[in-house]
From TrEMBL:
Name of the gene encoding the protein in the UniProt record: lacI
Record-given protein name: Lactose operon repressor
SMART domains hit by this protein: HTH_LACI
Keyword Metal-binding: no
Recorded GO MF terms: DNA-binding transcription factor activity; transcription cis-regulatory region binding
């Protein structure tokens, strides 16, 4: 039997498990258990078999294994623009948690989620054999934009899909309240705002909460300055706001916008925080090393990713969950040197 299998391997050019077993000095049954990821194999033996697989270039038949165990050990991931820092860090958390659980990840990017593009992308992922779908970012796309089987485990974060599917999301509203409340407590009469992109649910939450906080405090709500997630948008907004001597405090939609705004203020002779206090959002590591160090609201993006993988695994074991299953991740105000009382 082994000789026949080996002859088939030589004819096809592809190594077989029999070849792996022979090189590793174990039985074909043991090599098969290692290939399938079975736990009942000694660590030293597993390492020897895995070295033999690598040396021979052996690739397990994952489709056949999936049929046997009823799982493909693969999680699909949908995101919008992975070059954005928050999406990249969240996806990194997904990768870490999936790898730790023994799952591979199949990643797809959708530039325009509120379109047929998202439906087509989700359909492709399902047809590529996944055990569940993590939606890192989908803008303001709704449930109708996804093409999924009703039993497919799904987990989402910070989008309009929250409430329709199990979710792990930051408490963005509380983070904004803490940021605006901090500036008002310092004595600023009002707080200006540079927004994120209009198509972002997160940006809309931050803008709406900013305005609500000012109204509740009896403060004037200035006209928000349209922005994006990029530093260039903050720089353009900073040039505009620097010309207004009444501007003493600015809440920015994210840290990159805040850093662009601070540069513009500096170039226009407005000192931060002496003349203008600035608060960012997201808590990126680079904010600690900006000048001045940036006061911000820190979000744990990697935890978002890890929690969403946990929701997928929970559903894989116990069955699909509805949108009432939600995990809220705290947002943390981090005080640094970019804020001070008005002069």
């Amino acid at each position: 039997m082994a000789e026949a299998t080996s002859r088939r391997r030589r004819a096809s050019g592809a190594p077989s498990l029999v070849d792996v077993a022979r090189l590793a000095g174990v039985s074909p049954q043991t090599a098969s258990r290692v290939s399938a990821g079975a736990p009942n194999v000694r660590a030293e033996t597993r390492q020897r078999v895995e070295r033999a697989m690598a040396q021979l270039g052996y690739a397990p038949n994952r489709a056949a294994q999936a049929l046997r165990r009823g799982s493909f050990k693969t999680i699909g991931v949908l995101t919008q623009q992975i070059q954005r820092t928050g999406e990249a860090l969240t996806t990194a958390g997904v990768l870490e948690a999936a790898t730790a659980a023994g799952y591979a990840v199949n990643l797809t990017q959708v530039a325009q989620p509120e379109s047929q593009e998202l439906r087509e992308a989700s359909h492709r992922l399902v047809n590529q054999a996944i055990d569940g779908l993590v939606v890192v970012q989908a803008g303001r796309a709704g449930r109708e934009h996804l093409a999924l089987p009703p039993t497919m485990p799904v987990a989402v974060s910070d989008s309009t899909l929250v409430g329709h599917y199990p979710s792990a999301s930051a408490d963005q509203a509380q983070g904004v309240r803490d940021a605006v409340g901090h500036l008002l407590a310092l004595g600023h009469r009002t707080v200006h705002h540079v927004t994120g992109p209009q198509g972002s649910q997160s940006a809309l939450i931050r803008s709406a909460t900013w305005a609500a906080c000012l109204r509740e405090a009896g403060a004037i709500v200035p006209e928000p300055v349209p922005g994006d997630w990029e530093a260039a948008a903050g720089y353009a907004a900073g040039q505009r706001l620097a010309a207004n001597p009444q501007v003493t405090a600015v809440f920015c939609a994210n840290d990159e916008v805040a850093l662009g705004l601070i540069r513009a203020m500096h170039e226009q002779g407005r000192r931060v925080p002496d003349d203008v206090s600035v608060v960012g959002f997201d808590g990126l590591a680079l904010g600690e090393y900006s000048f001045p160090p940036l006061t911000t609201v820190r979000l744990d993006f990697k935890r978002h990713g890890r929690e969403m993988v946990g929701l997928i695994l929970e559903q894989a074991e116990h069955g699909p969950l509805d949108g009432s299953r939600s995990i809220t991740i705290p947002a943390e105000l981090t005080l640094r040197a970019s804020t001070a009382p008005p002069r």
